[in-house]
Amino acid sequence: MTDILPFAVTETIDVEFVSDAAATEGAALVIATKGKFGPHYTHAGLDAVAKATGFSNKTGQTFSTYAADGNSAVRVFVQARGSNDVFDYEMAVAKTAKALRGSGTGSLTVHLAGSDSSPDDAARAAVGARLATYSFNRHKSKATAPKKPALKRVRIACDDPAAARDAYDNYYGPVTDGIVFARDLVNEPPNVIYPENYAARLRGLTDLGVEVEVLGEAEMEELGMHSLLGVGKGSTRDSQLVVMRWNGGKDGDAPAMIVGKGVTFDSGGISLKPGANMWDMKGDMGGSAAVSGSMMALAKRKAKANVIGIVGLVENMPDGSAQNPGDIVTSMSGQTIEVQNTDAEGRLVLADALHYGITKYKPAACVDLATLTGAIIVSLGHEHAGLFSNDDGLAEQLSLAGEASTDKIWRLPMGESYDKLLNSPNADMKNIGGRAAGSITAAQFLKRFVGKDTPWAHLDIAGTGMKPSGRHDARESTFGTGFGVRLLNRWIASNYEG
Ligand code: BES
Ligand code: MN
Ligand code: ZN
Asked: Domain coordinates of the chain in residue numbers?
């Protein structure tokens, strides 16, 4: 199959911001602020129902009911927002949108007017609806599959719809487009998306003003990227390195750099993985998807920053021409690597991608994202991504961005004693450090290719970039979560956009 997939993201629903939505079409979500339902909410009897259900003023309390609206009854969901607690508007709307799945209700009105919600809260309410109704069904032959998203429209009734629209159009909407794009990339099966047509899809970002450059195997050979190229040797697909440049900042301002692991399928290579769940390794390009989705978002919201995105796209397969355990390869940096385990391939891809990006573009800081180790799932489950850094300031910036964006990260230590576990008698290093502290030794490996002068951070998103069912929150209804897109956008917005 050589078809180039459509560039457009899977569009979800229309978003409207209105000041008054007295007549509810479809279903309604009422955020009860400090026990009140807001002035524009006209359905009679809600106070009485609330009282009968014992609804009080505690954040997180909910009830749902039906209310008469003209000649029909509409479904009404109520969620309490207490006095001083942080209230997650995104999650509130996402839960309602999920409850409406398969109900056939095409429209949801969210009543925020008269509450103390900000325009950002209103914009995030819309995001919650979009993320919760995302579903990946491009490959289902029956258009009427029962899990099709039901919602077509979300109306947010709020005090300042113009300001909410502005926040949505200029930030939250584009970031959500980037998340949806990243989800689509991760969810595509490995026979449909592979390095060459992935790169072709990224060329589409040119339409948004991103400069896209694709290096094929010949160019990478020329540059001496044998660490990356070794991983693709067993694949019939050619490896690709894609560089995406968004020049929204001042001429000459050092760029922020984001680098992603894009293993379109990770069989383990000659160090073959067991069969169970091997299919999940179609998602081993979550880091590259986060970078690609972020570049889309930056361009769509015309971010005033210079940002370079680099993704290493490779398929890791066993074959007669695949690399073997014991092979020694020379990376672009000149350092030699004994490949003891061909399944520790992500670090081999990133070693050359990081060295190339950092030496060529001299970024102000560099953040890589990768579904790098199973060990990070043992450490942090599917809740937090692992954060590793050589720079406390950068680690702090990212932690703050993680909190603000709800892409949660947790810092783990690095150090000399972990680093030395990578020493090899046969080459400058080996690509595995043993069973203990597997995520940390993976990070130490990457650090050897970063150099001393660049603030760098690594996010291990193996547990958060793709999730087994049962581990999702209401905003994620899908294997590929799009983790990282909003974290990176928040990081860049807060630290590079003036
Ligand atoms: N892509 C995997 C990591 C992974 C595992 C991601 C499970 C998501 C879920 C990576 O390439 C890998 O195979 N890592 C090995 C490293 C080991 C050989 C040192 C691992 O985690 O077992
Ligand atoms: Mn692997
Ligand atoms: Zn992998």
From this structure: 14-179, 190-496
Atom 17, ligand 1: residue with shortest CA distance? 344
Per-residue three-class SS string for the chain: CCCCCCCCCCCCCEEEEECCCCCCCCEEEEEEECCECCCCCCCCCHHHHHHHHCCCCCCCCEEEEEEEECCEEEEEEEEEECCCCCCCHHHHHHHHHHHCCCCCCCEEEEECCCCCCCHHHHHHHHHHHHHHHCCCCCCCCCCCCCCCCCCCEEEEECCCHHHHHHHHHHHHHHHHHHHHHHHHHHHCCCCCCCHHHHHHHHHHHHHHCCEEEEECHHHHHHHCCHHHHHHHCCCCCCCEEEEEEEECCCCCCCCEEEEEEEEEEECCCCCCCCCCCHHHHHHCCHHHHHHHHHHHHHHHCCCCCEEEEEEEEEEECCCCCCCCCCEEEECCCCCEEEECCCCCCHHHHHHHHHHHHHHHHCCCEEEEEECCCCHHHHHHCCCCEEEEECCHHHHHHHHHHHHHHCCCEEECCCCHHHHHHHCCCCCCEECCCCCCCHHHHHHHHHHCCCCCCCCEEEEECCCCCECCCCCCCCCCCCCECCCCHHHHHHHHHHHHCC
Decide if pLDDT at 52 tops 80.
yes
Which comes out higher in pLDDT, residue 65 or 149?
A: 65
pLDDT value at residue 58: 83
pLDDT at 87 over 90: no
User: What pLDDT, in 10s, does the model give residues 202-215?
Assistant: 999 999 999 999 99
pLDDT digits (tens, 9 = 90+) for 283-293: 999 999 999 99
Pick one of 3.40.630.10, 3.20.20.30, 3.90.1150.10, 3.90.1140.10 as the CATH number of 190-496: 3.40.630.10
Whether CATH 3.40.220.10 fits 14-179: yes
Answering whether pTM is above 0.90, one says yes
**Is there a catalytic annotation at residue 486?**
no
- Of 342, 343, 379, the residue with max ligand 1 atoms within 8 A of its CB, to mutate for a pocket test, comes to 343
Annotation says 273 is catalytic? yes
Residue 340 in contact with ligand 1 by CB distance below 6 A? no
Residue 22: band (very low, low, confident or very high) from pLDDT cuts 50, 70, 90: low
Cβ of 294 closer than 6 Å to ligand 1, yes or no, is no
